[in-house]
Specification:
Length: 268
């Protein structure tokens, strides 16, 4: 048995990283797996609920926002809670760079438990699982999502929750300021910075007291005010330059905000 485990640990992979399988499960109460060993790395990301993870004589009581690593040749068991069974995604992978990647994310045989921001990583995990199960892409597609998951894990190292908020909010505002003239959707902003749309909405409401959509409209109107005063562009040209689909849309939003028409503002 020991020689088999050593063989698993010492196996030499030819690729830096290979995704073997992945999945998503809403577990039934007390559903368990193990004791068993795996020939490769396996990571579980807990999205909801609670459960217990047993490894090496240790017992870890985990819940939504936690995750756990299973290393090659390690005997483990995990079980869903009776009253609040967990929902999780899992990823099975290995490769000659896998150990280094995990180490860079703060994970190793000595550090198996980690924290995640469910609202940030959930979409990436579910997209990976859906793409892999339905063959929506190729091995590079799947690896791109896998590396994105590692990116989220690495961001967790030494970063305080407030720093997450500041970083995501700053990126969102920068994106809006650079793309306001295009017909962008708030979903585009969330996708660009890699977070859930609902989480983006919460960030703006908590820090700006307005929604991302309201912020975008206000910023477009501020640019419109500048163009009305500083240029001789027509109302239609200003509307298109600010991301409104026509002059009527600009006038409607302008009157709602400033109680005056764009033309009257220009003449004032």
């Amino acid at each position: 048995m020991n020689s088999y485990i050593e063989k698993i640990k010492d196996y030499q992979y030819s690729n830096p990283l290979t995704l073997f399988y992945c999945g998503h499960e809403n577990c039934k109460p007390c559903y368990s797996y193990g004791p068993a060993i795996r020939p490769h790395y396996l990571v579980h990301f807990i999205l909801k609920g609670k459960g217990i993870y047993y490894e090496g004589g240790n017992t870890h009581t985990l819940s939504a926002g936690n995750g756990f690593l299973i290393t090659p040749g390690q005997t483990t068991t995990y079980r869903a809670d009776l009253e609040d069974p967990w929902e999780y995604c899992w990823i099975g992978f290995d490769g000659y760079e896998a150990k280094t990647i995990l180490k860079n994310c703060g994970l190793s045989e000595e550090s198996l438990i980690f924290q995640i921001k469910v609202e940030v990583i959930r979409d990436c995990l579910l997209t990976l699982v859906n793409s892999f199960r339905n063959q929506l892409g190729n091995e590079y597609t799947y690896l791109s999502y896998l590396y994105q998951c590692f990116s989220f894990l690495k961001q967790n190292i030494g970063i305080k929750p407030q720093e997450y908020t500041e970083t995501y909010l700053k990126k969102a505002i920068e994106y809006l300021h650079q793309n306001y003239s295009y017909p962008i959707q708030i979903g585009d902003v969330a996708q660009h910075i890699g977070i859930d749309r609902t989480y983006l909405y919460k960030l703006f409401m908590q820090n700006k007291k307005i929604s991302p959509k309201q912020y975008l409209i206000i910023y477009r109107l501020q640019v419109a005010c500048h163009l009305l005063k500083e240029t001789e562009l027509s109302i239609s040209e200003i509307a298109y330059s600010c991301g409104f689909h026509d002059g009527a849309a600009l006038s409607r939003h302008f009157k709602n905000k400033y109680r005056i028409s764009p033309m009257a503002y220009r003449k004032s």
